[in-house]
Specification:
The chain is of the alpha/beta class. Helix content is 44%, strand content 24%. It has an 8-stranded mixed sheet, with helices on both faces. Belongs to the aspartokinase family.
Length: 436
């Protein structure tokens, strides 16, 4: 059983693309975002309402009604279904008109937002019904409850959703509005957008899904898609180590929860739903190189000792400052006279570090760097793999190499200008062809 989550739907064409993808994949649960245009109007309502511009709020709500009815006419040609969805739209619009008559209040603002989320979900469900699926909206504003730590209360969600599923066993597919939930006090609320993937993964675990398909913007992953995907899939451990090192894939808790429930994660591109960018599972074929992941806009910093502090004290001082300013260090190498790091930090933060350490070290900074993570089964016993990597990139200037800290990752730092040449060389050697 599958769960799908989609991140953005802006236009009619994108809605159709998502529907076609669903018809191909046959998921049991689909987590859908609110249409982009509706999101923008929601912001307009909040602004005008809190400024007590009631007429502007009512005008925006009327625009929402017109927009949704137009979508219904374009996407839902079955007359009874078209009539039903327009009736639902009218009821929803009337509720919002009444709500904005009240004094501006944060809770009511969330209730208005929830109405739009439900409307967007119901509109999408009706589109699927036209294709012969018995689609039903899953009101996550009722079932998805947060605990005191603002994390999903999984036992509560399991119990409430199980009962709902039992009552609707004839349903082919459930449509869940993305991020809609309720807080520990039972009030309408929304999960932080940065945790959308986790929101969907919680639903996947609740529904005991075998796999979850996450649509997200990924432009930094290269993999060998000439072979079976299990041959280039990452294990949960490999993916988790990458995320913890600062690589943007998905929210870390998604990996932990998916591993606990043994749910396969498939990452697809928001702009190209047919392209699977990465496959994360418990299966490890111990392939030498499975994928290559790129991080841009990082900084190379070399700290050279001024011999004021002995080596062990200097290292302690560097780590103290790094911890103080919560700087993400991607890779690091040291000698008896210097320490080199690849890190992510703003120029202002780098200036502060330089000011704090100027008595102890000379600091050299090189911006516009990129980091290449070569992912696979890279245990030291594979004696030829690292030499093959180095042989492949011997013609490219390397700033820093990190190897040995993990059995799953070989990290190389180069100037961004050399990144494309490096990727081409590695892909031709290990991935057969460049896939981006």
């Amino acid at each position: 059983m599958k769960v799908c989550k989609f991140e953005k739907m802006k236009e009619e064409d994108e809605i159709r693309q998502v529907i076609n993808y669903i018809l191909k994949e046959h998921p049991y649960v689909v987590v859908v975002p609110t249409l982009t245009q509706l999101q923008e109007w929601l912001q307009d309502i909040s602004i005008s309402w809190f400024h007590e511009e009631d007429s502007a709020s009512h005008t925006t709500i009327n625009n929402i009604e017109e927009y949704c009815c137009t979508l219904a006419d374009h996407l839902i040609t079955d007359l009874p279904l078209n009539t039903d969805i327009k009736k639902y739209i009218r009821e929803c619009i009337e509720k919002m008109h009444k709500l904005v008559e009240d004094k501006a209040d944060l809770l009511i603002d969330k209730i208005i937002k929830a109405e739009i989320y439900r409307l967007s979900g119901e509109l999408f469900a009706c589109c699927l019904r036209q294709h012969g699926l018995n689609a039903r909206t899953l009101d996550t504003g009722t079932f998805m409850q947060m605990n005191l730590e603002r994390k999903p209360d999984i036992p509560y969600i399991q119990e409430s959703i199980r009962q709902y599923i039992n009552e609707n066993r004839d349903t082919d597919i459930f449509i869940a509005p993305l991020s809609l939930c309720k807080n520990v006090y039972g009030e309408i609320d929304f999960m932080n957008e940065k945790r959308n993937d986790y929101y969907a993964t919680v639903l996947a675990s609740i529904f005991e899904a075998d796999e979850i398909i996450l649509s997200t913007e990924l432009t930094n992953i290269y993999a060998n898609r000439n072979c079976a995907r299990e041959q280039h899939s990452l294990t949960y451990t490999e993916a988790e180590q990458l995320i913890n090192s600062g690589v943007h894939l998905i929210y870390t808790d998604c990996i932990t929860l998916a591993a606990r429930s043994n749910i396969v994660i498939r990452l697809i591109d928001t702009h190209d739903l047919e392209t699977e960018r990465l496959y994360i599972s418990s299966h490890d074929t111990e392939s030498s190189v499975k994928a290559i992941i790129v991080q841009d806009s990082v900084t190379f910093v070399r700290f050279t000792s001024l011999n004021v502090l002995p080596g062990y004290l200097l290292m302690g001082k560097l780590l103290e400052v790094i911890n103080k300013y919560q700087i993400n260090v991607i890779s690091m190498a040291s000698s008896n006279v210097s320490v080199s790091m690849i890190l992510t930090a703003s120029r202002d933060t780098l200036r502060i570090i330089q000011r704090e350490l100027h008595k102890y070290t000379e600091m050299v900074v090189d911006e516009n760097m990129s980091v290449i993570h070569i992912i696979g089964s890279l245990h030291w016993e594979r004696t030829q793999l690292e030499s093959n990597i180095m042989e492949t990139i011997r013609h490219i200037p390397i700033s820093l190499i990190s190897y040995g800290g993990s059995d799953h990752c070989f990290t190389i730092s180069v100037h961004t200008a050399d990144k494309k040449q490096l990727l081409n060389s590695l892909s031709q050697r290990f991935l057969e062809r460049l896939s981006a």
